[in-house]
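Course exercise 7: structure representation. Students receive a sequence record and must write out the corresponding structure in token form. The form below is the worked example handed out in class, using G-protein coupled receptors family 1 profile domain-containing protein (295 residues). Read each field label carefully; the graders check that inputs and outputs are placed in the correct fields and that the protein name is recorded exactly as given.

STUDENT ID: A-19
EXERCISE PROTEIN: G-protein coupled receptors family 1 profile domain-containing protein
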Amino acid sequence: MEYLNNSSNSTHWKFTLEYQVALVSMYSIVFVGGIVSMALMINVLKSNILSVTTMAVLNLIAVHLLFLLTVPFRIYFYATNSWKLSRGLCRVVSGMIHAHMYIAFIFYVIILVIRYLNFFKRRDRVEFHRKLHALLASVAVWAVVLIGVLPPFAIKYGDSEDKMRGRMCFNFGGELEKGAVASLNYVIIAVVMLVTLPLACCQIWIFSQVLRKYKTSFSQQQEFWAQIKSLSFVLVMLLCFVPYHLFRIYYVSHHTSLQNENEVFLAVTAFSCLDMLTFMGRNAYGIRCEGCCLT
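STUDENT ANSWER:
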């Protein structure tokens, strides 16, 4: 990692060639794979629009699409090792990967909790009474995000770095030198871990119950493949989000020397955009289960 100056508050760095290649490759895969999976889901999501799970998946797709719009800017930055666009756009692109990760995390939790409730209560699905109710629920979630999170983010995120000189971007690690910001990071890490691990344990238990129930005929059961879909969401959380937050425990107090590594772990979170590819195989399983992958 090549430093342009030694100030901890205004450190600029350039990526080495190996990091450039790795990051450009990772985001290229995310961009192409994400666009393909979103396009395929347009045809697959012809399920009951009143289903709470279906609406959550639709909102999840919207989150992925918004993030994918910023990915070309990331590829440009990592490929050229410089940022010649506006500082404001840099802040938006930099912050979007965090917004994507946590909003997607919220919808993953909603989807899994609903599916677990369906399993324990032996219901096929949880539905809104009217399409208007489904729309209002989605608007409410987005309102909380846009009103409660976006304004403080737009005002404060990267504020201490805006006076930096140079043509680098995504270098907002200096924010972590503020005690309140560091503490908030630790709280977020704890919440993500305390939510993800119980959900994973619950999914493993449910999966074991389904296998025990159907024994050798499990592969012919709709319920089994429905749980495979739930398991795929859990795996996305474990493989894409958990590693980043485990790394961040150390990164918060050593951010000045781990900029490159932080960008790589952030890139791993972006692979959650490929989650919808897991929906493509429901007919390939030889089971016609209309809507069972979503409800």
